[in-house]
Amino acid sequence: MKRHLLSTADLSREDALLILDTAEQLAQVSGRSIKKLPTLRGRTVVNLFFEDSTRTRISFEAAAKRLSADVINFSAKGSSVSKGESLKDTALTLQAMGADAVVIRHGASGAPHRLAAWVDGSVVNAGDGTHEHPTQALLDAFTMRRRLGELDGRRVTIVGDVLHSRVARSNVHLLHTLGAEVTLVAPPTLLPVAMDDWPCEVSYDFDAVLPKTDVVMMLRVQHERMNASYFPSAREYSRRYGLDPERMGRMPDGAIVMHPGPMNRGMEIAAEVADGERSTIVEQVTNGVTVRMAVLYLLLSGSEPAIGGNQ
Predict the structure, then answer these.
(1) Residue 184: its H or E element
(2) What is the pLDDT of residues 125-156, one digit of tens each?
(3) Distance (Å, rounded) from C-alpha 127 to C-alpha 145?
(4) pLDDT for 284-299, tens place per residue?
(5) Which amino acids does the record list as binding carbamoyl phosphate (predicted)?
(6) Which of 304, 294, 303 is nearest to 124 (CA)?
(7) Longest CA–CA separation in the chain, Å
(8) Residues sharing a CB contact under 8 Å with residue 248, sequence separation 6 or more, in sequence order
(9) 139 and 252 in one domain?
(10) What would you report as the CA-atom Rg of the chain, rounded to the nearest whole angstrom?
(11) How far apart are CA 257 and CA 281, in angstroms?
């Protein structure tokens, strides 16, 4: 029976809490002088990245190595993929190598789902197109829970380029599953056309939402995915949808600021906010390793039920 993590929409509340609770236990390892467990010794994890992502790839590599797995980093650039090899041929190569898990990032939405049909090992979606990025949502939820306690009834506001954000979709589904109330704030041009299956509210007025939010998550404006003008100017976008110290002053006491990174400092988030005490941005990076350890542990150790359904 195959076991994968492809989408946060596949996770039940029990699945999600199992991952977060396991990550909490594994966080204790990060505090040790020797940050290693023998749990996945003899297992092979392949990082298959068709898009650049230094932090996510390094985070998965660190997570696998802390669990004593062997790690193979496969970059599509300069490989046979760039010479025209298909995803299926690459999958068959990984299968022949005996990969126990494949962590895939791909520019095409749905690529991890296709890969899961071709390999016997577990597949973890590390970001596919503008579709999903489940481990980012899990590390975000883990960070929120550490700062705020349980997420039931918490109000989370996700702001910015929702249209091009795989992080936003994954977070909306996961946070809803965990009992939080999510509001998306963006210009109409930066919201997807079809959002019928998104369990959240939508607002165009950032200032109106701020006083009643527990978490503000700022999204990066993804210029590289934009082939048209989605807003009049960077300055106008920042004025209406950027988080600066004045806006942060309207947030309730105890509310936190998040950003999945990388940031456009001075555009969607001011440097003083990003580096302030309410910011969890550095914690998110640290927690990413812990949460990805939990995902790999649960998928590969064989001692727990599958997370995120079977294929």
Answers:
(1) strand 181-185
(2) 999 998 999 999 999 999 999 999 999 999 99
(3) 23
(4) 999 999 999 999 999 9
(5) 55-56, 105, 133, 136, 261-262
(6) 294
(7) 56
(8) 216, 257, 273, 276, 278
(9) yes
(10) 19
(11) 8
User: Amino acid identity, residue 288?
Assistant: G
Quote the pLDDT of residue 135.
98
**Residue that the structure tokens 């980093």 belong to:** 73
CA 128/CA 105 separation, integer angstroms: 6
Count of CB atoms situated within 10 Å of the CB of 228:
5
Annotated binding site for carbamoyl phosphate: 55-56, 105, 133, 136, 261-262
Give the other-Cβ count within 10 Å of 202's Cβ. 14
Q: Is the pLDDT of residue 305 over 90?
A: no
The domain containing residue 58 runs over which residues? 8-133+285-300
Please give the tally of structural domains in the chain: 2
- Is 311 inside a domain boundary? no
CATH number at residue 38: 3.40.50.1370
What residues are designated binding site for L-aspartate?
83, 166, 220
| Residue 305, in any domain of the structure | no
List the structure tokens of 77. Answer: 């650039």
Directed axis angle between helix 281-300 and helix 134-148, to 10°?
120
Which residues are annotated binding-site positions? 55-56, 83, 105, 133, 136, 166, 220, 261-262
For residues 300 and 306, give the distance between their C-alpha atoms in angstroms, rounded to a whole number: 9
